[in-house]
Amino acid sequence: MLLEIAVAVLGLFCVLLAGACYQLSLKLRQQAELQKERDALRDQRLKEVSRRLDAYLTGSIRMGEELHELRRVVAPLPDKLNQMEQRDPSSLSFTQAARLAGMGASVDDLTHSCGLSQAEAELVSRLHMAQKQRS
């Protein structure tokens, strides 16, 4: 009889142990599903960050190319400025006078601002008017 009670108690423990194992396996499956969802969300975020990084890199490359182009354009400017400074000052006055005449400056404005004589200022003004009438 004692043996039968021991076997019954042992059987009961086995059933309880099997129930506990089943509950643990259910919890494990739930945790695995949650982890799968978290992994999918993490992968989606990584893809979005990767797309943003690619966009930033592309923009940086374009900016670098544009900076390189600007450097190429700006590099000769100091030499050109030195050349312009070494030119005959009267030729610069005529260039400036032509520009001012194009903006509608009067003969008096040309003589005062460019240092031209009255006759030179009138010539520049008339040349500009003639050119304007042809256009």
Shape: rod-shaped
Q: How would you sum up the major sheet?
A: none
Oligomer: single chain
Q: What class, by secondary structure content?
A: mainly alpha
Q: How confident is the prediction overall: mean pLDDT?
A: 87
Low-pLDDT regions: none
Q: What's the alpha carbon Rg, rounded to whole Å?
A: 45 Å
Q: What is the end-to-end distance?
A: 127 Å
Give the number of DSSP strands.
0
The portion of residues assigned to helices is over 70%
- N-to-C SSE series? HHHHH
Tally of individual helices: 5
Strand content of the residues, in percent? under 5%
List the helices and strands and how they pair.
Elements: H1 2-74, H2 77-86, H3 89-102, H4 107-114, H5 118-134
Helix pairs in contact: 3-4, 3-5, 4-5
In short:
This protein is an all-alpha fold and 135 residues long. 90% of the residues lie in helices and 0% in strands. Helix 3 runs antiparallel to helix 4.
Task: Describe the 3D structure.
The protein has helices at residues 2-74, 77-86, 89-102, 107-114, 118-134. The chain has a domain at 88-134. It has 135 residues and is an all-alpha fold. The mean pLDDT is 87. Helix 3 (89-102) packs across helix 5 (118-134) and helix 4 crosses helix 5 (118-134).
